[in-house]
Amino acid sequence: MSGNRNTGYVRPLDLRDGRVEMSHGSGGRAMAQLVRELFLAAFDNDILRQMNDQAIFTLPPGRVVMTTDSYVVSPLFFPGGDIGCMSVHGTINDLAMSGARPAYLAASFVLEEGFALAELKRVVDSMARAALLAGVPVVTGDTKVVERGKGDGVFITTTGVGVVADGIDISGANARPGDSILLSGTIGDHGIAVMSKREDLGFRTAIESDTAALHELVAAMVAAVPGIHAMRDPTRGGLGTTLNEIAAQSGVGMMIEEASIPVAPQVEAACEFLGFDPLYVANEGKLVAICRQQDAGRLLAAMRAHPLGAAAAVIGEVRQDRNGFVQMKTRLGGQRIVDWLTGEQLPRIC
Amino acid sequence: MNYIDEYRDGTLAAGLAAAIARAAIPRRQYRFMEFCGGHTYAIARYGLTDLLPSSVRMIHGPGCPVCVLPIGRVDAVIRLALEHKVTLCTYGDALRVPGSGGMSLLRARARGADVRMIYSAADALTVARAEPQREVVFFALGFETTTPATAVVIREAHAAGIGNFSVLCNHVLTPPAMAAILESPVLPGAAPLALDGFVGPAHVSTVIGTVPYEFVALRHRKPVVIAGFEPLDLLQAVLMLIRQVNDGRAEVENEFVRAVGRNGNLKAQALMREVFEVRDRFEWRGLGEIPASALKIREPYRRLDAEVRYAMGYRPVPDNKACECGAILRGAKSPSECAIFGTLCTPENPIGACMVSSEGACAAHYSYGRFKDAVEVPG
């Protein structure tokens, strides 16, 4: 930050036509300027303003929860969101799935040489807005620049800390036979929104990503039912993968009802067209919760009372099953496995 | 979804299931093969076997375009991508098909090959036009459904004189494969072919019509019912097959009248005849060599044939010995009767053809139906 006090003026970053250069990651004056004029300006808060290499803060009483996640989405901007807000929502959600109240975020950027500063500003502003709305500030960060062709514009890693109150014990390993399985809303919106933009599929109906911070919904759920057994956000791999993860961790099976799983008509149509199964399409603003059957009514009411859980539904129950199968009663009255996703979901030929 | 939900109605399905149960003669077994992977997938995805009486057994046929591609052909396309450094464009589910040593186009991409997933044949030509400095090869595969689209692209590239584009043609034909199943010699000690009829292809039939299946009814005395890919289509087709069997009839009937006519799509057939000719023989994974069962590019368009342009020879690679795909594709065995099913051979590491794509008989059973093989644990 020093070096310009005597001249009083430094040409500001060209946020309209400028590009990321190697010098923006070299630790010198150019980097200091990028940090000051872009990152600090957007994320501004007391802790960040101290400009140290670390953030120092105290947390409210309880157990500390920590998580980290890297975001590499292509395209960077998609209907309903962008890599910036997604990198805030995703990490807040990973914290919240433990029942924690998220407190602070750290953000690390890997920028590709030649990436337009205007786009970077859009991403950073979107992150800042998401953090502000969520009430979870970004208090420390880092920037690196890689040579052109060695990145995809921008990669973002966010790390979060939060605090979980005593008495709350939510874990993927806690699902028990007889428990109810609840889902907070429609599935597949994010994955289809990103894919339709990436592949330029030109669907006439706009499908928007559901990217959202779920911690307020979770707070309402935990207040209604402190004894929630398990919770997870079905991101990559979709609902099908998340249910299999929990079943494996808890050593149980599951039976879900296809007819009870909400899917937006546009998403269903896009999946039909591409030969995808919405059960394996990514979400960024949904959660699965598992609780005792006698608590399910109260938990469902609390979810539906929140805008992000308005379409919540009970979709099935946990069962004892040595094989750990997640099974589904189909709309047709048949029964099948909802298996782990094999590799990537790829469109079928015919 | 309009015009889709109507064919997935649970109440109508229950009604059809009841009609099937009434029509099935007690103590008689009905074994029907659904030829198409699309049907196999629908049966598995909607759990349709639960709606059929135990006397009706569905046998999953070879109609999955990536499953029947022999290892030798997969190896050849991988060599083309890795050694000739071409830009290889193909459909999504062709990317994962394993060749020798577990190599696939996806894994070739990780090793530096330029492999691109496309949604239609026309996309491949778009890539060639956009990147004239690259040699672009469209890895074309599929049954008669996808063949006309490949023909259109070949004609267009030919007319426009696009020099950096070629097509590696692996299109195969449905009727010769059905004939091969019906006429396959039973090896000593092997279970004989036991089939009471076929659920005929949906999308393939929109192109070729119903006439090409008449030999099945006339020569082999097996009923055929052409059916759509929706669950109600399938249930209706099974009911029609049972009625034919009960009446002692062997006819080609068409359940999929909303899309399939007796003569099919004549314009598409003319296009296919103009651009392609029938190969003398073609190897199918799991079924072996079948005469006159695949297409190659005709002389006026030979310049666009990647096999010619890159002087690609064909080296057959034998299937794994433990694999029972051949017997499964003929309906002589079920997936769980194969010793390596679900152990050595899984969707993550497929050994046999039937495990390759979600439409394959073994993959569909593994991914959707294997709970039926498991020992019930009291809950």
Largest sheet of chain A: 7 strands, mixed
Strand content of chain B: 15-25%
What is the second-level CATH architecture of the largest domain in chain A? Alpha-Beta Complex
Count of all domains of chain A:
2
H-E string of chain A = HHEEEHEHEEEHHEHEHEHEEE
Alpha-carbon Rg of chain B, integer: 21 Å
Count of DSSP H/I helices of chain A: 9
Regarding quaternary structure, what we see is: heterodimer
Q: Describe the strand arrangement of the main beta sheet of chain B, using strand numbers.
A: 2-1-7-8-9
The profile of the biggest β sheet of chain B is: 5 strands, parallel
Report how far the terminal alpha carbons of chain A are from each other.
60 Å
Radius of gyration of chain A: 22 Å
Count all strands of chain B and give the number. Answer: 13
CATH superfamily of the largest domain in chain B, by name, is HypD, alpha/beta domain 2
Stretches with pLDDT under 50, minimum 5 residues of chain A: none
Termini gap of chain B: 37 Å
State the domain count of chain B.
3
- The shape of chain A, in one word, is globular
Which of globular, elongated, flat, extended, rod-shaped describes the shape of chain B?
globular
CATH topology of the largest domain in chain B: Rossmann fold
Name of the CATH first level of the largest domain in chain B: Alpha Beta
What does this 3D model show about the protein?
The complex is a heterodimer of chains A (350) and B (379). Chain A has 350 residues and is an alpha+beta fold. Helix content of chain A is 29%, strand content 21%. Chain A has 2 domains: 22-164, PurM-like, N-terminal domain (60s Ribosomal Protein L30, Chain: A, 2-Layer Sandwich), CATH 3.30.1330.10; 180-337, PurM-like C-terminal domain (Phosphoribosyl-aminoimidazole Synthetase, Chain A, domain 2, Alpha-Beta Complex), CATH 3.90.650. Chain A has 9 helices and 13 strands. In chain A, the strands form 3 sheets. In chain A, strands 8-10-7-11-9-12-13 form a 7-stranded mixed sheet. Chain A has a 4-stranded mixed sheet with strand order 1-6-4-5. Chain B is an alpha/beta fold and 379 residues long. Chain B folds into 3 domains: 5-19 and 27-60 and 175-198 and 210-254, Rossmann fold, CATH 3.40.50.11750; 71-173 and 264-309, 3-Layer(aba) Sandwich (Rossmann fold), CATH 3.40.50.11740; 325-368, no CATH class. Chain B contains 14 helices and 13 strands. In chain B, the strands form 4 sheets. Chain B has a 5-stranded parallel sheet with strand order 2-1-7-8-9, sandwiched between helices. Chain B has a 4-stranded parallel sheet with strand order 4-3-5-6, with helices on both faces. A two-stranded antiparallel ribbon of chain B has the order 10-13. In chain B, helix 2 (37-45) links the parallel strand 1 and strand 2. In chain B, helix 6 (147-160) crosses helix 11.
